[in-house]
Specification:
The complex is a heterodimer of chains A (353) and B (356). Chain A is of the alpha+beta class. Chain A contains 11 helices and 11 strands. In chain B, the strands form 2 sheets. Chain B has a 7-stranded antiparallel beta sheet with strand order 4-3-2-1-7-6-5, with no helix packed on it. A 3-stranded mixed beta sheet of chain B has the order 8-10-9. In chain B, helix 7 crosses helix 10 and helix 9 runs parallel beside helix 11. Classes of the chains: A alpha+beta (353), B alpha+beta (356). At the A-B interface, helix 1, helix 2, strand 4 and helix 3 of A face strand 5, strand 7, helix 3, helix 4 and helix 8 of B.
Chain lengths: 353, 356
């Protein structure tokens, strides 16, 4: 067979429209309500099927092969393994309080918190693994052989190290976890490479971090100061400026940091001979979130069902890829596939697209 | 037999990403032959599985090989379209019924389940054997870790008071907890706690008898089990609905009784008091005093003084019960004194932290 080489330039395209998506989203909403939420697993699947099939990479559409019942079983498994023990622990805790063992309950609470922290790392990993294993392009799928339990520990200690020096190492936490997670993933025969570095995003991080650090003593200063006379007016004015800054300035700065982080993270990714880049600037993210907010508030929340659509479209339209793909060498993934969906992620409420 | 038909087709063999472009020949019966420069395949129509429809194309999988993909144009002749597996949209059940019917059916089942779920504690609670409740209660609350006050005189006085409002052979277990909270609770397993703070508020033993009788009423009418089931159900429901494991910190402290349960417990208390010749007037005054002074969380089991029937209405019912009768004091001055000083005189008892 001939050695086919495809030039992949600006390779991602999205050709869905919100009217068609609405025909999926509204019945989904109806059925989800009528089934007390049980249908949401099938709803998610239908939405993904739509979004994936309207997303092209080079010259072929993606295909979502996940099924509602996988997500449902994932949810059931987590309910049994995590939910029921958790409910029982709560009753044990009440019993212990009645026996006067508050200290032990506190210790138990801390252990539970740490366990949740660890499990949320595992959940993020497994969700990504599931999504890749259910994504097909030209009949080929992705996946990972790693079950993600080791990543859970990484997630645990890297966030710990990132937060302990009053949060100064968070960019390192985020980039190193991004790399670690992606490097365990593959699509077809190729493992993903990811070399995100914290140094390029530090300036943006400090732009967010230093004001945050200054806000704390300023808050205390305002609380302890007496509002009298001319000085009071100055203080009141600065207090207004401060509040405005907290509600508008800080979110903007955090978006600016995240935009930079995401560009750095995606731009260092390679898959086979393909290199990726993400070209959304801070202003693009702000427009995305602002319109989300306006839509949701103008429709009393109903537009919430379009958020997955809007965000998927945003990601696809700002994703770029360059390089060559040898289609003959692009063979089927040999990774193990989990039979159940992203239950853990669902349980920890991180189940956005 | 339908006429045979040929149509452009694409397929992926699932082994590599190479796309095979050629034609699909339908023999008019159950066979489909795929022919291209690079690949020849034959398949029975019955082995194809509908995957999805997308922009003018239909995608089929192959039951023999999950990786295989066949892509056909969406506008196929009716005969072939009918022979191919039908398209799925919402999921097998909904597709079978139609969206409207399925919605109505699901909503009906959901409403039934919800009704069952919310009424279950009321009919299930009283049917759970007392012995089960007792072991469950022991597991849940245990012995309070030495936070119950004991003196020989106080214990005797409490036993005497309890005997008056709980004539049953096997008494409920009652104790005075070393806590300054003005409160009383009936806990799973027929355990009653009167907090020392409430004992100190009481001016006559009749007032305490009213409180104790009310809590005994909760135990005897099986309200505790009902409330426990409701609480357990809510915890499970909430953790199932939003699945946010972190934010359903419900405990026993959030358990509450219904308005009817409170009224029943009051009726029980009044009946026992009258049987034993205890004046309900004291209880009436006590309720009024407490409710005037204390602003508790209305819905909490532990917010005893604010328990549901309006305080005025409640005191009235107790006063009516007292009309035209003569009563003897339920405890002597000495016995009442022993109850009051029980926590102070017990040197070994530890302090119970506020549970709410």
């Amino acid at each position: 067979m001939a050695d086919i080489k495809e030039k992949a330039n600006n390779a991602f395209r999205f050709d869905g429209n919100w009217q068609d998506f609405a025909k999926i989203a509204f019945p989904n909403l109806l059925l989800t309500i009528a089934t007390l939420g049980i249908y949401r697993f099938w709803a998610t699947t239908r939405e993904r099927q739509y979004l994936w099939s309207h997303t092209s990479f080079v010259d072929e559409r993606l295909e979502w092969t996940g099924e509602g019942r996988e997500l449902f079983f994932g949810f059931l498994i987590v309910t049994v393994l995590v939910g029921i023990p958790f409910v029982i622990l709560q009753f044990i805790a009440s019993g212990m309080i009645f026996r006067g063992m508050q200290d032990y309950v506190l210790v138990m609470g801390i252990i539970l918190f740490l366990a949740t922290w660890y499990l949320s790392g595992v959940a993020r990993f497994r969700a990504m693994r599931y999504r890749l294993s259910r994504t097909r392009w030209r009949g080929i799928r992705g996946g990972s052989d790693n079950p993600g339990f080791a990543y859970g520990w990484s997630y645990f200690w890297r966030w710990m190290v990132g937060i302990l020096p009053i949060g100064l190492l968070i960019p390192w936490t985020m980039t190193s976890l991004w790399n670690e997670r992606w490097q365990e993933m593959s699509f077809g025969p190729y493992t993903v490479q990811s070399d995100a570095e914290p140094a390029p995003i530090y300036k943006r991080f400090l732009l967010f971090y230093i004001p945050l650090l200054l806000l704390v003593p300023m808050g205390f200063a305002f609380q302890s100061s007496e509002l009298e006379g001319g000085m009071g007016a100055v203080l009141a004015f600065s207090a207004i400026v401060l509040v405005l800054f907290i509600y508008f300035g800080m979110p903007l700065l955090s978006v600016a940091y995240y935009a930079k982080f995401f560009r750095e993270a995606v731009n260092t990714m390679r898959w086979g001979d393909v290199e990726f880049s993400f070209r959304a600037r801070t202003s693009d993210w702000i427009v995305l979130y602002l319109i989300d907010f306006l839509l949701i508030s103008a429709t009393f929340g109903i537009a919430y069902i379009f958020i997955p659509y809007r965000h998927w479209k945003f990601y696809v339209e700002h994703m770029h890829a360059e390089g060559e793909i040898d289609l003959d060498a692009m063979t089927q993934s040999q990774t193990a596939t989990a039979r159940h969906g992203e239950g853990l992620l669902d349980a920890f409420d991180m189940g956005a697209i | 037999m339908e006429e045979s038909f040929r149509t452009p087709a694409q397929w992926y063999d699932g082994q590599s990403a190479v796309r095979h472009e050629g034609e699909a020949f339908w023999d008019g019966a159950g066979q489909l032959a795929l022919r291209s420069m690079s690949s020849n395949l034959d398949t029975a129509l019955g082995e194809l599985v509908f995957a999805e429809e997308r922009g003018g194309q239909r995608v089929y999988r192959w039951s023999g090989d999950d990786d295989f993909r066949l892509i056909l144009p969406a506008d196929l002749p009716a005969g072939l379209a009918a022979a191919l597996p039908s398209r799925r949209k919402y999921g097998a059940w909904v597709d079978g019924l139609g969206l409207g019917k399925a919605t109505v059916l699901f909503a009906g089942v959901s409403a039934g389940l919800l009704a069952l779920f919310f009424t279950a504690p009321d009919w299930l609670g009283p049917r759970i054997p007392t012995s089960w409740e007792r072991s469950m209660g022991d597991a849940l609350v245990g012995d309070f870790g030495n936070r119950i006050c004991h003196t020989p005189e106080g214990d005797a006085a409490l036993a005497k008071l309890l005997a008056k409002v709980d004539p049953a052979e096997e008494k409920v277990r009652a104790g005075i907890a070393n806590s300054t909270d003005v409160n009383a609770v009936a806990l799973p397993g027929g355990q009653i706690l009167i907090f020392d703070g409430l004992v100190q508020e009481a001016e006559t033993p009749e007032e305490l008898a009213g409180v104790l009788g009310h809590e005994v009423g909760h135990v005897r009418e099986r309200h505790v089990m009902t409330a426990l089931l409701r609480q357990f159900g809510l915890t499970v429901l909430l953790s199932g609905m939003n699945t946010g494991v972190g934010d359903t910190l419900f405990g026993l402290a959030a358990m509450d009784y219904s308005r009817d349960a409170e009224r029943e417990a009051d009726e029980y208390s009044r009946a026992r008091m009258l049987e034993s010749g205890i004046s309900p007037t004291g209880a009436a005054e006590f309720f009024e005093r407490l409710s005037a002074r204390i602003d508790y969380d209305e819905d909490s089991l532990l917010g005893w003084a604010a328990s549901h029937p309006g305080p005025g209405e409640r005191a009235e019912a107790y006063r009516e019960a007292a009309e035209g009768r003569r009563f003897t004091p339920v405890l002597t001055e000495q016995e009442f004194g022993a109850l009051k000083t029980m926590c102070e005189e017990d040197e070994n008892v530890e302090v119970m932290q506020s549970i709410v």
